[in-house]
UniProtKB/TrEMBL annotation:
The keyword Transmembrane helix does not apply. Keywords: DNA-binding, Homeobox, Metal-binding, Zinc, Zinc-finger. SUPFAM superfamilies: Homeodomain-like. GO terms for molecular function: DNA-binding transcription factor activity; transcription cis-regulatory region binding; zinc ion binding. InterPro entries: Homeodomain-like_sf, Homeodomain_ZF_HD. GO terms for cellular component: nucleus. This is Zinc-finger homeodomain protein 1. The keyword Transferase does not apply. GO terms for biological process: regulation of developmental process.
Length: 60
């Protein structure tokens, strides 16, 4: 699921509806379950390369 969501950009857009429905059918989950899982895991898995916030130190 992570690979697929990285491909579609962690958003369920109208233009991707057919691809999302096909993917859900292939892996055997309901579209609603997939949407909830995506929303619940977007912050954990979706954003890997976040720039540091102002005031945060970086180690180089």
């Amino acid at each position: 699921m992570l690979k697929f969501l990285n491909k579609v950009g962690w958003k369920m857009q109208k233009r991707d509806e057919d691809v999302i429905n096909k993917f859900c059918n292939e892996i055997g989950v309901y579209r609603g379950f997939f949407k909830v899982w995506m929303h619940n895991n977007k912050n954990t898995f979706g954003k890997k390369d976040n720039p540091p916030l102002d005031g945060e130190e970086t180690t180089n």
